[in-house]
Amino acid sequence: MSNSDTCREFEASEWLRYTRHIQLPGFGVEGQRRLKQSRVLVIGCGGLGSPLLLYLAAAGVGRLTLVDADSVDLTNLQRQVLYSEVDVGLPKAEVAARRLLSLNSDIEVVAVSDSFGVNVEAGGKGYQHKEHALVEAHDLVVDCTDNFPSRYLINDLCATYKKPWVYASIFQFSGQCALFEPDGPCFRCLFPESPKDLPDCNTAGVLGVLPGLLGTLQANEVIKYLAGLPTPLGANLLLVEALDLEFRRIELRGDPVCPVCNSNEGDQGTERADETAGAASESEVHPGVMEISVEVFAQMAGDAFTLLDVRGDAEHRAFNIGGLHIELARVAEVGQDLPRTSMIICYCQSGQRSLEAARLLNEAGYSARSLAGGLAAWLKYQQASPGGINNE
């Protein structure tokens, strides 16, 4: 047997697996070789990460590093198709890694069950050196997160190490996707400052299929970029509307005063991302004084208090845990009719509307608190308690 028979770039099983890529005009052996040699860092293994990771693993990307500090939650299963009911409570990154290796055992998958950009042990101030090392060690980064501090940090580190990265975000029925390449416009050119009071999926909700759509678009751009195919999302923002199925593409232009891509002070943008990440973490670590935890609420069963559901009529009819019902928009209007002899505990789905209701009621002279995390947190607490959820 000659050397030409034994020294092969692909195993027989790989050659068979990737036949459809190899036969594809413009892709071929070279495109598949480039995928096999590529290292991709994926930050976030949730709704966007689920389809993205499945397609990158199936396509034969040589090494995938998955970063996610969360565990699988029952509420994830409406859209995070990488997981199943038996995975609830387990670390997402580890579950995802096992799933990807079961799909393609020829690739390397590394799971990092940690946050990206916020050092919680340090009170949320600063990020660790691992972020630098992770970005530097990979050929391309994919943002599948749901917060601006992480995106700014990804942007700034990718600019520092000249790495391309693919961004996507989702909100209710809408999504965005973009490819940021070295020496081109960056994320800070698009969003110089983090939007204020922007609700996430926990508060605003999201159509389950939408992250699948955007995550698949991300995978499409990643595979094309790595394989050397045209990537029209470079320096462009794709806007996706799932309701009317409308796609629009907007050309991005560099900001002449951008502190990252148009500044000689390379660490300036990174310092700003650090400060933003710290501020975001601190707001999460210290809950508002108008909130009451589900643990405390559970101990108040025999106490005198007034329970108030501030959700909409349809939500209240579909499911509630009792109490009065006044929609948030009417709380200020009819609040004077509520009893003043006991504490009022407001609740909604995620705790955001109820927090606003508690604020309004306290301003009106009541003693009001918001159930932290809302019905979602309360039902999770009950599910974890002995006997599980009481459906009565």
What global shape is seen?
elongated
CATH architecture of the largest domain: 3-Layer(aba) Sandwich
Poorly predicted tracts of residues: 119-127, 276-287
- Return the domain count: 2
Give your account of this protein's structure.
With 392 residues, this protein is of the alpha/beta class. The chain has 2 domains: 247 residues, 3-Layer(aba) Sandwich (Rossmann fold); 94 residues, Oxidized Rhodanese, domain 1 (3-Layer(aba) Sandwich). Helices cover 39% and strands 16% of the residues. The protein contains 17 helices and 13 strands. An 8-stranded mixed sheet has the order 3-2-1-4-5-6-7-8, with helices on both faces. Helix 16 links the parallel strand 12 and strand 13. Helix 5 packs parallel to helix 6 and helix 5 runs parallel beside helix 11. It is elongated and about 80 Å long. About 5% of the residues have low confidence.
The gist of it:
With 392 residues, the protein is α/β, with parallel strands linked by helices.
Q: What are the main properties of this structure?
A:
392 residues; alpha/beta; Rossmann fold; Oxidized Rhodanese, domain 1; 2 domains; eight-stranded mixed beta sheet; five-stranded parallel beta sheet; 17 helices; elongated
Give the SSE map:
Blueprint: H1 3-6, H2 12-17, H3 19-22, H4 28-36, E1 39-43, H5 49-59, E2 63-67, H6 92-103, E3 108-112, H7 129-136, E4 140-143, H8 148-160, E5 165-171, E6 174-180, H9 187-190, H10 201-204, H11 210-227, E7 236-241, E8 246-251, H12 268-285, E9 291-292, H13 294-298, E10 305-309, H14 313-318, E11 324-325, H15 328-334, E12 343-347, H16 352-363, E13 368-371, H17 374-384
Parallel strand pairs: 1-2, 1-4, 2-3, 4-5, 9-13, 10-11, 10-12, 12-13
Antiparallel strand pairs: 5-6, 6-7, 7-8
Helix pairs in contact: 5-6, 5-11, 8-12
